[in-house]
Structures
1.
Amino acid sequence: MKIRKKLLSLLGAAAMAVTVMAVAGGAQEVKAASNTYVVNSSVADVTGNVGDTIEVPITFTTDTPTNSLLGKLRDNKNNVSYYDDTVLKFVGTEFRGMPAGLTSTAGGNFSYVSTETSTSGTIILKFEVLKCSPTPVTLNIKDLYYTTNAIKTDTVNLTSKITINHPTDKRVETVTKEPTCTEKGTKSVKCGECGADLGTEEIPALGHTAGDWKVTKEATCTEKGSKNQLCSVCGEVIKTEEIAALGHKAGDWKVTKEATCTEKGSKEQRCTVCGEVVKTEEIAKLAHTWKTDKDTDKDGWKVVTAATKDKEGSKERVCSVCGTKETATIAKLTATTTPTPTATPGATSGNKNNTTTGTTSTGSKTTSGTSTGSTAVKTGDSTNVAGMVAAVAASAGILVICGVMVMRRRKVNR
Ligand SMILES: [Zn+2]
Ligand SMILES: [Zn+2]
Ligand SMILES: [Zn+2]
Ligand SMILES: [Zn+2]
């Protein structure tokens, strides 16, 4: 204090011009001019984390070798710090690029005195970060001055902005707009420690949630259907797919026209689901039903004109359903044959007729074949035996005996 009083009197006598200039980063530079003594000082802005010890550097250059300085961080008379001391705690100083000297932080202020001088240096103010704060802490360094050789610079006030990072694990997020499947939401973020408003952040859209499929058009036998998959949250259609046509289901055959002995019939198969005709087929004509009575043989043949040795005979048969008449000739009788009125070649199977007498049918080949075929099946044992014997006999040339045997059997049967 003695030094200061002395200096003050000196300064009072000196005519001084002081220029205050703003410096980038919020720091200040002060040019204090006395008669021969000019110092430039500036302080940097600092950022730190809770729990850190941060360093606030004041750099200075002077045109005159300097050996002492003093600055204030606190008004002890009114018990007020020039910064928020609930956030920062002043813990010490360090003087870099300067000769060793006596230092003090008594009363929360700082001072330095050395026996040697320097024309530049960095005064480090150290603070422990106690907590974060909603806004950066303004650190005011007041009444800073430098002295040497009994002269003193003008006092200067410097200001540093100290930003404390908010602990990332103490963020409190409040959704202000819920995101939807397709739209972003928002949330406001606050520091859980100091309550600082950390702004608004986006919440990404959620995207759709694939839900159930819903049939929009049922497939039929012949036409494709379609289905949609909906979002289970918002109900929007997120996918559309085809449903394959089902194809017809063939049901039972149904006769649409019965076949007769003169006309083909038809039948169809319909789909059991939609009733559409799936397949159509013909039904073959039925065989004629030859009328039989006492004047005919089993195949319906009736002798119209008996054959003689000189002349062929004729026979005919009639369908009882459609009335179709079929005629055939009866071969001439051979010399060895005993003429008998009832000895018609048609009385036995067609095969036998052909073999023994050479009878030829004048009716359609198909009709004749069908009728003789069915006769052969219907014929009793005796006739079959007769037929076989006749065939054997014919090949052996003993036709006559055989013919007689057959006649007898037939008579017995009737
Ligand atoms: Zn905070
Ligand atoms: Zn959705
Ligand atoms: Zn169908
Ligand atoms: Zn017929």
Note: The radius of gyration is 66 Å.
2.
Amino acid sequence: MIQAKALCAAIGANQVLRDVSLEIAPGELFAVIGANGAGKTSLLRALSGLLPLQSGAITFEGRNIARVPAHRLSRSGLVHVPQGRQIIPGLTVRDNLEIGAQNVGLSRHAIAARLDEQWERFPVLRQRQSIDAAALSGGEQQMLAIARGLMMQPRVLMLDEPSLGLAPQIVQLIMQTLRDLADQGLAVLLVEQVAMLALEVADRAMVLRNGACALSGPSAELLGSRDLVNSYLS
Ligand SMILES: Nc1ncnc2c1ncn2[C@@H]1O[C@H](COP(=O)(O)OP(=O)(O)OP(=O)(O)O)[C@@H](O)[C@H]1O
Ligand SMILES: [Mg+2]
């Protein structure tokens, strides 16, 4: 589905990605964990066309996408839910969702069908569909950010620290939602700083440190080497 080979990228003089490779299949939940500043967001930005590569290759469904602009990628099914959610204040919950779908050019009919799916997945958003999105709680805003990503009919969904600042109960719900989406056939790339949380739901994972892959493998194996994983997280 999506494959990245030896990605290198810099922000100014700062080398933020060093030879990072990964591959995610449909139905798979892949976690990228790492400390503050490890390069997790940079990796997502590189994959979604927002951070230029110095070298390396990215293929999405067999197509080379290393130089395709971000808006074209989201139209073709590679969707990035950014760190900090970036919902649009001043617009209702429903408008935030519809705008997500309009961005990728869905018909009215398709938008209505996608909306129904989101209402079913997150009933609280249905209840609150007519209020200003800025009035939602942090957890509801994260649900909205995920639902907005799902409005774009992704085949790969990438999420940047969806647990950030949320109560444990909401975090559990978000993680379970991501697991369900993978089980329904989506390729999910989850970036998390809370490593154990991510390892518990993911199939495979990578530990990033200083922009490079320090460790990778099946999540169960990484959970079995907790001490080693933790040694890379500080
Ligand atoms: N706009 C920027 N200008 C300069 N350096 C940046 C910029 N954005 C990020 N960096 C640097 O790039 C490196 C990787 O940052 P990145 O945001 O990818 O890390 P992260 O793993 O997502 O961290 P966090 O957990 O804090 O979100 C860090 O050293 C950071 O200081
Ligand atoms: Mg980040």
Note: The CA atoms of residues 132 and 204 lie 37 Å apart.
